[in-house]
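Dock flavin-adenine dinucleotide; give full complex structure.
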Amino acid sequence: MTTDRILPSREAEDLLDLTRAIGDRHLATHVNRHERDETYPEGVFKVLADAGLLGLPYSEEFGGGGQPYEVYLQVLEELAARWAAVAVATSVHTLACFPLDRYGTAEQRERWLPQMLDGRLIGGYSLSEPHAGSDAAALTCQAVKFTNGYTISGTKSWITHGGRADFYALFARTGVGPQGISCFLAPGSHDRLAFGPPEQKMGLHAIPTTTAYWDGAELEAERLIGAEGQGLGIARRALPQRPSADT
Ligand SMILES: Cc1cc2nc3c(=O)[nH]c(=O)nc-3n(C[C@H](O)[C@H](O)[C@H](O)COP(=O)(O)OP(=O)(O)OC[C@H]3O[C@@H](n4cnc5c(N)ncnc54)[C@H](O)[C@@H]3O)c2cc1C
C-alpha cells in the first residue's frame, strides 16, 4: 500500500526516498529470519547510522539531521513498515539522546553527543521499574552521591535494546518524592551492571527488551544530566520526543 505524504521540503522527500531504499534493501530482506529466530540484526544500525537516520530531529551543530519532527516520524513509519522492531529501537535511541541534547552542559554535549547523534553509540532509555511503569514517580533505583560521583543500585525493567545499547538515559533517585529523581547518562557496560534474559514478547523479537540490575555501580559526577531532582521532568519531556519544542 502506498502512502501519500505531505513533506515540507525537497530535502525531506529525498530523505524519505533514501529511507525506503535502505528499508527495502537492508530491512525487508532480513526481517522474517531475525524475527522468527529472535536474533539481533547485527550491522543494521550501522547502516542506518551511515545514512544519517539516527539523530534526525536534533540540531546539526552536534551532528543531528536538523529535520522537523514530522519528517523524523515519517522516517520512522517507513522503517516500521519494513521492520517494526528496528523502528522501535531507532525511536528509543532518538529518545535516549534527548536528555543530553536538551539538558547537558556544553562540555557534556561536546564529549558525548556527536557520537550519539551519528549513531556510533546506540542508546537505550531506562525509566521503568518492576513496580513503576505509568507511575514513573514511584521508581526506587538509588543514586547515592559520593565525592566524585554517584553509586547506582536498583532494578530497571523493560529496557528496549537492554544489554546491547552503548549508553542509557537512566533515571534514579537522589532524594525523596517526585522531585527526588535525577537523570544520568549511564554507560552500556559496567562491572556492577548485569542484564536479565530477553523478555518473551508477542513481537519485536529481534531487539531484546530486558531488565537491568545495578549493584553499586559508581558513575562519575559528569554523568548527571541537568540538576539533581530534575529527572522526572526530563523523563516526561523526553517521551513526546520533541527536541525543537520549548517545553
Ligand atoms: C515492548 C516494550 C518495550 C518497552 N521499552 C521500554 C524502554 O525502553 N524503557 C522504559 O523505561 N520502559 C519501557 N517499557 C515499559 C513501558 O514504558 C511500560 O510498560 C509503561 O510505562 C506502562 O507501565 P506498566 O507496563 O507497568 O503498566 P501499568 O503502569 O501497570 O499500566 C497498566 C494499565 O493501567 C493503565 N493505567 C495506569 N495508571 C492509570 C491511572 N492512574 N488511571 C487509569 N489507568 C491507568 C495503563 O494505561 C495501562 O493500560 C517497554 C514496554 C514494552 C512492553
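Observed: Residues 92, 124-128, 133-134, 158-160, 201, 204, 209 surround flavin-adenine dinucleotide (CB under 6 Å).
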